[in-house]
Amino acid sequence: MFARIWSKLISITFLGLTVIGMTGCGSVTPVPETTVTVTTTIPAATRTPRPIPTPTPTLLLFPTAKASDITENCITVERDSEIPYRSDFGALVINSWFYPKWTDSDFIEPYLFTASKQKIILTTKLNMTYFASFAVSPDKTKIAIFNSQNDGNNDLLIFDNNGKAISHFNLPAQFNGARIYYWLREGMLFSKSDRSRDRYILFDPFGEKELPLRTDFPNGSPRGFGSGDSRAGNRIFFDPTLSRAIYLAEYKSSGTLYFSLWDLIANQEISQFKLVSYPNKVAWSSDGEFAIMNVWLGNQFGLVKILRDGKSETVFAGDVHDFSISPDSKFLAFWLVDEYQTDFYTLFMKNLETGNIQSLCLQTDMSVGMVWSPDSKNLAASFEYEGDVITTVIDFEERVAYKIEGVAIPVGWLK
Hints:
By secondary structure, this protein is mainly β. Helix content is about 0%, strand content about 45%.
C-alpha cells in the first residue's frame, strides 16, 4: 500500500490602512490588500507495507484411477530348456556379482550373453564394484561401464557387441560417486549426489569436454523424488532427446510441492502437476514423447503418462513395484503388488496403443531388473521363482521364459 501524503494550503489576509502623510486637509491614501500564501507540509504517515504473497498456482491433477480390464496370457517358465538360437538375438549385457574371499566388498563381473549362448566376459584389470553403472550407446552396438571408486579412480570403459574393449577413460574428480544416466548422441549424461543435492554432468569423453546443460529451474526443490530411476538422480529427470525435463518444484511461501514439465529448447514451463505423493520411479520413453511415473492418483496408486505437450493420462490403476517401457514405446511391462500380500508381485504387460492389459501369470516376491531387447520382442527379467532367483529371457511370440542365469541383473541389450 502506498502511504498517503496530505498538503494543506493556508491563506492568511491582512487588512488595514497605513497613513502615508497628513497636512491640513490632506488626504489619506489606503494601502492595497496584501495576500500572503503559506504552504504547510504534513509528514507522511509511517506504515509497514503488507507483504504481497506469492500466488499458489492452479495445479493440474492427475486423472483419477479407474479399474482396468485384464486378461490372462500366461508365460511358461523353462528352467532346463535352452533358449532357441535366433540370429537377431544380439547380446544381452548381464551384471553378475561375486564375493572374493579376501575382501568384504562386493565385486561384479559383467558379461555378454549371445545368441549362441556364449558368455563373453567383459574383461578388465579393475576390481569393479556393484556401484558401477551401465549405458547402451544410441545405436545399440556398444556398452559403457562407469566404475567410480573411493580412491578417486573414475574409470569409464567401452566395449563393442563382441565384448572387445575399445576405449578406457579416467575421468576427473568431479565424477567421484557419479553414475551414468544416458548415453546420448551429444555425450554421456552423468548424475551424482553432492551435499544432499543431485548434480548432472553432460560430458563428451571422446572430445574430453563438458557440454552445457541447464540444471537450475524456477522454484527447483533440493528435495528428492524418493528412490527414483536407478540410473538417474532423484531431482531432475531429463528425456533422451534433452528437449524436456521433469523436476520437483516448491513454492517457498506456501511450501506447496509440485512437478514441473519444462521445455529445454524454448526454455519455458509447459505444465505443473500437483504433488500428492512421491513417485518411486520416473522413466522416459526412448523417443522422448512421454514419461511414466508411479504416483497417487486421487483414490489409489497407479501409473500415469505425461506427454511432452503437458497432457496426462492414467496408464494403470494399482500399486506397481517396478516397470519398463519397450524401445518402440508400444509396450509397458510392470510388476504389480498383490493387494493382500504387499511383498508379492505379478508381471503384467500393457499395449500402450490399444490399451490391452495382460497378466503373464509370473509371480514372485523379489524382482531385481528388466531390460528389453532392441526390437521389443523379448524381455530379460530377474526374479525369484520356486525358491531360486533366476534370470530369464521372455519370448513373447513363443510365450516362454527361458532361464539363462541364476543371481544376476540384466543391465543392457545390444544389437
